[in-house]
Structure formats: structure tokens, C-alpha cells
């Protein structure tokens, strides 16, 4: 087991930021911590890194208790923090070389690793640039290169894609999967459910410092019984017809907002067909019909009663 957190509790004065948090992360996982802003993700990471002390619980990394002076554990950990932390007077190359040098003293070996990190983050052509000449997305890529150049076994990435352009975002996400393929276990925090769904093998959803659900995205979605969502535009549909729709097999909910009708179905198979057959039989004109599987936002909404997004 790479990480084992048991009953972690951390407060800032009267505010309990993380409460009774327990989870484990196995080697090779991309583990996602998904929660809205202020839900305690960064606090949990900082406790795992022994950057913060905590009142209750225990944290074991690589099978050993994590301590502020556990340098033997820390050398195998890479950290990419939310705030970009690079030296503004050093070039892109020199920054990566500096951070890599904290772990790798052999010059030749380090040169190879820095070149690989430049390739990996697509920063080769910017190697001589000072950070102030980089766009926000490139600066975040530099932040990542500095955190991962020494090829750590375990990498923490805290919201690495906040405020980056879509191209850099995709390149960051692809890069994380590549690091994972090359053998690193990843802990990834985000409040973007799409990212977490795309790259994480297992996800813990947190809210107000507490874990509300943990599992693969399929497991999380099967915890709720929302099934798929089917929507269409039907300006002439009548109240009595909406009631009939609600009584079709597997339809669990029907809502109308303006001309837009949204149904929830507990079963994917055959439901869309029976809705289409009903609309045809009742001669109800409709447009833009589409069906969506539930998202992690639906899971969050069902459990907490609020949206994941701010
Ligand atoms: N140093 C601090 N002192 C007091 N309160 C803090 C401190 N750091 C965080 N908090 C509070 O603790 C709670 C959890 O914050 P934390 O930063 O861990 O959440 P988060 O999920 O990482 O959110 P974000 O994505 O916005 O960083 C929030 O209510 C935050 O305001």
C-alpha cells in the first residue's frame, strides 16, 4: 500500500477542515480527491506531506509513518502545489535543474532527467525563457516539470489545471497519465469532475472535510439510483401527457422547465425507445432529444443536496 490515512482530523482554530478522513491508495493508482472549493483537499494533502500537523489520526506512506523529518520517504515523493512556485530569476531549464538537483546529485543523470521533463511537459522550445515570459498554462507546466523531474514513485498534484487554457489542460492530463504509465502513483485533487472522471482510477468525493463516497466512477454512479437523464424540447406537451410519461416503465422523475422536458430513468435499456414511442403515439412534436449518463455532479448533488461547481 502506498498511502494509508486513518481517521485524520485537522482544524484551524474552531474550523474543522478535515474530519475523520480514512482512505488508502494502492501502487499504480491515479487517485482523485474531488470536492468543491474549501472542502479540505489541500489541507488533506498538506497533512499527508507532513507540512501541517494534525490533532487526530495517522498517515503511513510506503508502509512507514509519515513525519516532518521522514526524508527517506520524501525523496520518492513529487509535489505540484496549487500555487506556482518557481524562481523568477532562473530560466525554465535552470528551474527544473534546481528542483531536480534537490534529489539527484549526479550531473549527467540530472541532465537526462531535466531534458526528459522538458520533453514531457512540452517546454523544450521555452527552455531559455524566464518564467515571466511564459503564459499561465506554460507556467503551470513548468511548475509540474519542477515537481516531477526526479521521477518520484508518488506524485501529489493539487488542482494543476486551474486557470489554464484547454490546450495546456489536455497536455497536463495526458502527461499525468503518462507518468502513471511509467510507474508513478498519482494523487490528484480537483473540483472539475470531468477531469477526475477522465484520468482517475478511483475517486474520493469530499465535502466539508469529510469523505462522502469513494470508488471507481462506475461504483460512485451506481450508489445513486438516478440512472440516465433524457431531455427534449416539446413546447406543446400538456400536463396530463407529462403525467403519462412519468408512469412509463423505469421513468422515475419528469420535470419541465419552459419548453424543456427532463426525465430520469432507472434503467437505460429500452427507456428511450418507449419515450419515443409515447411521443409518436401522442403526436407530440419534439426537438433535440438526447440521453446522458449520470455525472459525478449528480452523485454529489444526490448525497449533499448541492452542486459540485461553485
Ligand atoms: N491556514 C488556514 N487558516 C484558516 N483556515 C484555513 C487555512 N487553510 C484553509 N483553511 C480553511 O479550511 C477549509 C479547507 O480548505 P482547503 O484549502 O483545504 O480546501 P480545498 O478543498 O483545497 O479548497 P481549494 O480548492 O479552494 O483550495 C476552508 O474552509 C478554508 O477556508
Automatic annotation (TrEMBL):
SMART domains: AAA. Residues 3-233 form the ABC transporter domain. It comes from the Bacteria. GO terms for molecular function: ATP binding; ATP hydrolysis activity. The keyword ATP-binding applies. It holds the Pfam family DrrA1-3_C. Keywords: ATP-binding, Nucleotide-binding, Transport. This is ABC-2 type transport system ATP-binding protein.
Amino acid at each position: 500500500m502506498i498511502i494509508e490515512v486513518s481517521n485524520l482530523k485537522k482544524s484551524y482554530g474552531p474550523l474543522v477542515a478535515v474530519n475523520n478522513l480514512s482512505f488508502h491508495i494502492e501502487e499504480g493508482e491515479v487517485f482523485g480527491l474531488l470536492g468543491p472549493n474549501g472542502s479540505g483537499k489541500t489541507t488533506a494533502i498538506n497533512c499527508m506531506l507532513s507540512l501541517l500537523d494534525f490533532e487526530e489520526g495517522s498517515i503511513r506512506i510506503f508502509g512507514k509513518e509519515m513525519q516532518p523529518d521522514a526524508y527517506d520517504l520524501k525523496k520518492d515523493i513529487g509535489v505540484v502545489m496549487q500555487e506556482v512556485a518557481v524562481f523568477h530569476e532562473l530560466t525554465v531549464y535552470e528551474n527544473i535543474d534546481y528542483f531536480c538537483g534537490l534529489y539527484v546529485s549526479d550531473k549527467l543523470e540530472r541532465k537526462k532527467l531535466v531534458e526528459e521533463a522538458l520533453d514531457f511537459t512540452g517546454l523544450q522550445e521555452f527552455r531559455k525563457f524566464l518564467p515571466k515570459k511564459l503564459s499561465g498554462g506554460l507556467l503551470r507546466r513548468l511548475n509540474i516539470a519542477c515537481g516531477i523531474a526526479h521521477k518520484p514513485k508518488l506524485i501529489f498534484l493539487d488542482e494543476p489545471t486551474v486557470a489554464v487554457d484547454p490546450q495546456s489542460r489536455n497536455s497536463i492530463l495526458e502527461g499525468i497519465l503518462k507518468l502513471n504509465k511509467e510507474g508513478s502513483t498519482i494523487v490528484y485533487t480537483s473540483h472539475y469532475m470531468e477531469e477526475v472522471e477522465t484520468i482517475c482510477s478511483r475517486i474520493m468525493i469530499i465535502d466539508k472535510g469529510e469523505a462522502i463516497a469513494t470508488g471507481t466512477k462506475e461504483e460512485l454512479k451506481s450508489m445513486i439510483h438516478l440512472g440516465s437523464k433524457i431531455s427534449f424540447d416539446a413546447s406543446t406537451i400538456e400536463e396530463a401527457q407529462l403525467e403519462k410519461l412519468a408512469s412509463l416503465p423505469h421513468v422515475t422523475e419528469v420535470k419541465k422547465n419552459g419548453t424543456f422536458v427532463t426525465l430520469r430513468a432507472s434503467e437505460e435499456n429500452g427507456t428511450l425507445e418507449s419515450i419515443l414511442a409515447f411521443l409518436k403515439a401522442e403526436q407530440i412534436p419534439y426537438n433535440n432529444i438526447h440521453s446522458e449518463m449520470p455525472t459525478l455532479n449528480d452523485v454529489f448533488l444526490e448525497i449533499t443536496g448541492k452542486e459540485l461547481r461553485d
